[in-house]
Structures are given as structure tokens and as C-alpha cells.
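[step 3/7] fold_predict: job queued, chain A
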Amino acid sequence: MENMELPNSKMPKHDERVTRDRISELSDDVLVKILSFLPSEEAVLKTSFLSHRWKQLWESLPVCFNFDGLIPVRYGAYAKSFEDSNDYRRMKAEDGEKERCKFVGWVNDVLIAHQGSTIDEFRVRFYLDHNSQTYIDKWIEIAMKKKVKKLELDFLYSYPFSRLSYRLPQESFCGIEFLSSLCLKYVSASDDVMEWILSNCPMLENLHIEGSPLLRHPKVSGSSLRLKHLHISKGYDVRSVEISAPNLVSFEYHWVEWWFTLHIMHAPKLTELYYSSHFDSIDYHVSSLSNYLPQLVTLRLSMQLPLQILEFPTCTNLRHLSCKVVIRPRRRLFTLRSLIEASPFLHKFTLEITNYNKIKNKLRKVRKVAEGPPHKYLKELEVKGFSGQPMEAKFVAYLLKSAIKLEKIVIHTDFSDHKRFYSKEFVETTHQMAHELARQLMEHRPEAELVLL
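[step 4/7] structure written:
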């Protein structure tokens, strides 16, 4: 580290003539307690130059560096001059470069000042790209040498400009054997680099990859993998994902393209699945999931309607089901019945609706309710985006009638997304109508608690 050339270092110089300070007279326990109240990245700059004794204190203190350039820094080691991300994006190129240099200088100064031998967590969040490649490489190298356990790189602005984004170098991961959690956002990580990380990181339990323009056919496989949680999102060029992970508990995939294929070869402990697609519904992948649906405890879906599968495979262990759906003209909400009726032991069902049909704020009483088998275990319902439209009301009425053991229903009538399309008065009237309709629907279920939000 002595040969590191890092810019913008503003470390106060130690004056050998300064006599012993009073703080250093305190016991080690008291000093460690003081340090524990300070953010690590600030405490290093404030204390490391005071006395050689501080170097020893860092050895016994868990260090978690959180270099987040989008939030105010309490002690002013780095002070950003923009209010939010939109302000930064509107900046002139030279002003944005100045902000980047300030941020890089702050990280450099802290890492130079830190004399401890270990770093527990290392997080960097800012608009960085290939122009900062040399510095970022060095940061990773330092963190790895200090046996970092949790590493997060979030570079925000790089994607989708793949030629400008920071590329994760495989050779920087010397010391990777201590890593238990890795989060890469808007970092270019190729299939080969991802496989290399998995094969050389025996302690890794959490892997989050978001917005990587180089992923095409990632493979998550290995009989000795300890990986428990896998998240892949905003992979616009991902064509397939292959999974063979004996300890995998949860898997999340978002923003699936229409050509995407999922191959779960071996995941005996998989109990939580989150699937999100803007282009197709889960029925497109049911065949590849059929062996694992019965073992799921939690299933969260964000998808287009309708479901094409009329008889969904039985999910015997499912306890929590969440569906975020988009309703467009001529799309039916009742296609979700196959999912609910295929989950006989479901305890909680959450439905989030985005309705693109034209809203009519006219109160209509629901007369005819669809018949369905009674659900003996469903105790809690939550409906978000309820506007009281006939399709929504009939589906909620169906749920109320089927859930014979229902204890609580929470209904959200938030129309913030509609304010740009309708007048303020219309939104308020519709909000009141939705509340009134919800109360009417609950007339036949007085034993259940109704919460209106």
C-alpha cells in the first residue's frame, strides 16, 4: 500500500512536536466504543493521524466502509454539490468530472489512512465508469487483501453504455476466498468472470448481479457451492440461466426478454422464487420449474396477464404468494385463479394491480361472484392499486368468498400514478368510491379485519 498513487488525498499531517492528546489517555474499551459510533469511512480520517495507538484499535473494531456519494456525508469528508441523481445527470460534463474526482479522492484518502488489517464490508455507490478503472481496481485489491466479507459496487450511470462501463477484472480477486456476499450493479461482468468467481469463492452465499451488459449465458453450478441467494436483473442480453446449486434457497430474476430460457438442473433447497417479466407470463417457464414448484414456500411474480395455463401444477408447500400484474384492455384478472387454487395451503396472498383500463368513478354493486372451491388456510389478503373497477371488485369478492378462514384484508387505494391522467377531483372521488366498495364487499365477512389505506 505504501506505493499506492491515489489523488486528492487531504490527510492532515502528523506533527511530531504535538504532545500526547487527552483522548489517548482513555482506556482501549472507551476508545473502541467512541469509534463504534462513527461511520468507519469518517472515523478513519478523523482519528488515524492522532496517535500510533489508533492503528492497534482498528485491529479489534469491525470496519464497514459505505462510500455512498448520493447521500449527505455527516462529517463532510466528501460533500456533494448536487441534490439528487437528476441534478447530477443534468450537470455539464466538466462539473460531473469534478464531482467524480471529489468522490474518488474521498475514497482514496480513507483507504490510505486505514491501518487496520481487515475490512468486513466495502460498498461504493456513485456514477463511475471506465475512466475510474485504475482506482476501482486498486480499491478492490485493497479490500481483498484485507479479507473483505461483503463487497458491493454500484456504479449507476454506466449502463446501458456498455463500452463505457467499468469492467470487473478477474485478476483483482486475490483473497476472494473470504468473500461471503458480492453485489455488482452496472458493472460489466462476463460469463467467464462470473464462473471464475463462483469456482474460486468457497464462502460465497449471496450473489447479486444487476445491469451487466456482458452476461449472456451465465451458469451457476458446482457441487461444493455454498450459494444460498442469487439475484440477476436488468440483463437485457441474457439468453439463458443454468442453475445447479445444492444450497440455493432463493432465486430472483427480473426484466426477462422474450427469448430467455431458464434451466434449473439441481436446487433441492430452493424455497423462494421471484420472477419478473415485461414480455411474458410465468406459464412460459412452468415446464422448467415443474419439479421445483411443489417445494416452494414463497412465490413472487411480476408479469403480464393472462395466464395461459388453466390448471397450474399443485404447490403443496406454498405459504406466501405475491402477484404484481398489469391489466390492459381485454385482459382478464380471473386467470390468476389457477394459481390460487393450486396452492391449497396458502396463508397469505398479495395482489398488486396496475390497471391500464379507463377508470370510471361510478359505484356499482357486485351481484354475481364467481364460484370456486373453499380455501381453508388463506388467512390474510392484501390488495394494492384497488380502484374499484368491476373486474377488480369481482376478483376481490371471489377471494373473500373462497377464503373461509380469512382473518384480515388490507386494501390500498393509491392513485398517485393516475394523477397525471385525471383531475384531482376525479382521483379523490374514485378513492372514496373504492373505499366504499371495499366496505360493501366486506359486509358478508364481518369476522375479518378490514384495513383501508
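[step 5/7] annotate
The chain has a mean pLDDT of 80.
Residues 286-453 form one domain.
exit 0
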